[in-house]
Amino acid sequence: MGVVYRAVNTTTKEAVAVKILRQQYMHDEIAARRFKHEAVATTRLSHPNIVAMHDYGSTVDGYLFMVMEIIDGKSLAKIVHERRSLTPVRTVHIIKQVCDALDHAHQQGVIHRDLKPGNILLTEVGDEKDYVKLVDFGIAKLLMPEGDIDETQIEQEGEVLGSPLYMSPEQCLGRELDGRSDIYSLGVVLYETLMGKVPFIGRTLQETVEMQVQTAPMAFSAKRPDLTLPGSLEAVVFKALQKKKSDRPQSMRELARDLESALADDGPRVSKATYATSQKLPLKAIVVREEKRGIKVGLTIGLLIAVALAAVVLRNVTAGTPLHTVPVNSAPSNFLPTAK
């Protein structure tokens, strides 16, 4: 839906990223609203672990754009894929930064709603090799919406926004969301980072959704018998993955504290995890509830392109070389191209 340019701020000479809505979506009202929604959500936030955006608007040609800081690094998804899994120490170090970023977002009334390893970028800052930058607030939920933003206007009838492999049960069912939905999604990310595999994946999209709503995660020892991880850490992950949101950590700060305590625990390397299987719902009940709310089981996966290069810059910068070619006059008129 968007194309990202590498650009140069002509005043500061700093490299920046410019994201432009693709030409074919210029007259798509839903696409335009989602693009603006991402800009509004991101500009609410100011945190070192969240991609910074300094400007957004439209060009003289009518193209919508966002200008953001550029991130040189890899996504957590790519790193986990390359290494198959990460150590508990490295995992907790990364996820605690995500917790800190999301705690800030939640305090500002922003629920990410699309947490996944692909939206967690890792870059180098000084001596820090795993410095987190959280990106892509394209389908974020604004608990205190701006006056000209209607949450319902970024959804099409029958859609449930999100990535099913990481969606909370309440998100799958189209229910009201709060920060605890992000906690569940981050629990899925935790599980995948430690295990190298997501906890829930069905043969079909519908089966995956059903598992998110009613299936308990597989124990670490069963999922990866080749690994031996602290039982206290498994317990924290399983708590974040509780189907009932009142059974999860109630804030990102609480989750971060639990992770830190689990890492410091010198107890036995056996499972301490418990899971509330009483929350299991029959499939018929799930489908009926969705039909009553007008929610389709067929969800939209990857509704927005993740921000591969994060964002920041002021108004007077000019368009650079696109990562994917679009007409030159589609870029803001005061952006200077850079070499590939």
CATH class categorisation of the largest domain? Mainly Alpha
* Strand line-up of the largest beta sheet: 3-4-2-1-10
Q: Count of helical segments?
A: 10
| CATH architecture classification name of the largest domain | Orthogonal Bundle
Secondary-structure element series: EEHEEEHHEEEEHHHHHHHE
How would you portray this structure in words?
The chain is of the alpha+beta class and 340 residues long. The protein folds into two domains: 2-70 and 309-330, Phosphorylase Kinase, domain 1 (2-Layer Sandwich), CATH 3.30.200.20; 73-150 and 160-292, Orthogonal Bundle (Transferase(Phosphotransferase), domain 1), CATH 1.10.510.10. The protein contains ten helices and ten strands. It has helices at 29-43, 76-83, 88-107, 169-172, 179-195, 205-214, 220-223, 231-240, 252-264, 283-292, and strands at 2-8, 15-21, 53-58, 64-69, 73-75, 110-111, 120-125, 128-134, 141-142, 318-322. The protein has a five-stranded antiparallel beta sheet, covered by helices on one side. A three-stranded antiparallel beta sheet has the order 5-7-8. β3 (53-58) and β4 (64-69) form a beta hairpin. α3 packs antiparallel against α5 (179-195), α3 runs antiparallel to α9 (252-264) and α5 (179-195) packs antiparallel against α8.
